Amino acid sequence: MNFKIPNLREYRYRIIFSFVFLIIGILILLIGFWKTLFLVFCFLVGYLVGLAIDKNFILEVIEKIKEIFYIGRE
After folding, report:
1. Does 65 map to a domain?
2. Where are the transmembrane segments (predicted)?
3. Which of 13, 28, 43, 70 has its Cα between 20 and 30 A from that of 35?
């Protein structure tokens, strides 16, 4: 038998966000709104820190702070 899988690329964001909001809905029902909101906040902070490290953004910010306060200059 030859089954063809439809091209799901055009539906990928619908599928991804459907599952994300399903998980968020289940978490709200199980642990409550504020705890779920806190978990989402922690996830976003972790994601942004990881993104900043991946892009070397944090190192650039540290260098700019050093330049502003003349740290490391004689």
Report:
1. yes
2. 12-31, 37-58
3. 13
CA-to-CA distance for 55 and 48, rounded, in angstroms?
10
**50's tokens:** 């990881």
- Tens of pLDDT, residue by residue over 53-73, are 777 877 787 788 788 887 666
**Is 74 within a domain?**
no
Is residue 64 situated within a structural domain? yes
Q: What is the pLDDT of residue 2?
A: 60
Contact 37, 45 (CB under 8 A): no
The boundaries of the domain holding residue 55 are: 9-69
Q: Percentages helix, strand, coil for the chain, rounded to the nearest 5? A: 80, 0, 20
Nearest Cα neighbor of 42 from 29, 27, 54 is 27
